[in-house]
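note to self — DONT lose this again. spent like an hour looking for the file last time. sequence + predicted structure for the chain T wanted, 404 res
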Amino acid sequence: MQKHSRQTTHKKMKSIYKASTFAAILAAGTTSLLADTVESTEESAFKKIESSIPGKFSLNYRIRYEEFQNASTDTAGVSHRVRYGYTTDNYGGFTAMIEGETLSRIGDDADEIHPLDNAGDGTDLNQAWLKYADKDLGMIKVGRQIYTLDDQRFIGAVGWRQNIQTFDAATVEFSGVDALSVKAFYLDSVERVTLASNPLESYGLNVSYKFSPSAALTAFYYDIENDDAAAWNSTTLGLRYVGSTKLEDLAFAYSASYATQSDVDSGEEGDYYAADVSGSFSGVTLGAGFEILEAGFRTPLATVHKFGGFADVFLPITGFAGDFHDYYAYVGYKIPVGSGIATKLIYHNFDTKDGFAADGDELDFVASYKLSKYATLLTKYGRYEPDSGAYGKRMFTFELNFIY
């Protein structure tokens, strides 16, 4: 008992030390990045490099302190990730891009960072593609690429994790008719956030029509097949409507989605329902919504962190054993300090039918502050508590993002 207490105290002290160190790094970065002269120097240096070589260099750096706890995992540590890329000039409609990504931890222990980031630790080829674009017709892109559709519920990039999800794919977009967008894809493989590569033989079609600048209806069909994981295999047909409107000082936004899915092998079917509505006035946003996945409904290529709460309790990409219901409400406010601190508080109530998992509640919070044209601070917190009294789940992050 005494030994456990000493280990716990040591771990807490180590966590406090890391947090203090990280805070000091960010404080120093904040002091310098807030200065206009530094921002001007940064921009001047990048432009000087680009003026000597045709094309554009890109840099995306993130340093993150993260705590993650559940019944079997307790991590607290600092990781940092950098993406470095180059995109050529446009030559007769053709452009090409190559990008690498390196993820590493500050410290030697593997269990000090999030398990998914630990699995994705190292250097990887992130993107390498060739694109042809015609301003009147659309574009085609072939190679390893970041690819997302709609709200990323079915095809996403998992941008929250340090390593991003990419695809070896051929993607096409036709935009030759006003208000109409037709997107098609063939996916040969997916490069996961863990650096695992999964072979695919998947294709899909996403057709969107804008009835007005603020309202659009999208129809989609996705056929996902993974030769190494039959539980991914499914065909999905769905509709999504998004819109917004203004009424004097009030601004409203709304969305609704429906999809039906069939298991490629067994033929079993399941449905998906989601809706969200919000209103904004005087800098305050109030909103509510729900998401329902019937038993077995799968989303293996989604950005799952966007859905079901920040604490990542409900992440089975191959479907739930029973129906899953998420009812949520949120309030957002931009605090008028400096450039403005954007905040959002979200409450979730989870109702998992048929007792396949614990019902529960979750409270999430996120805040971001733009330090300069290139740098942003972000903090995020999520705490899930099951109704059964079992061990809950908690996550906390504090990070600096630099994007050029």
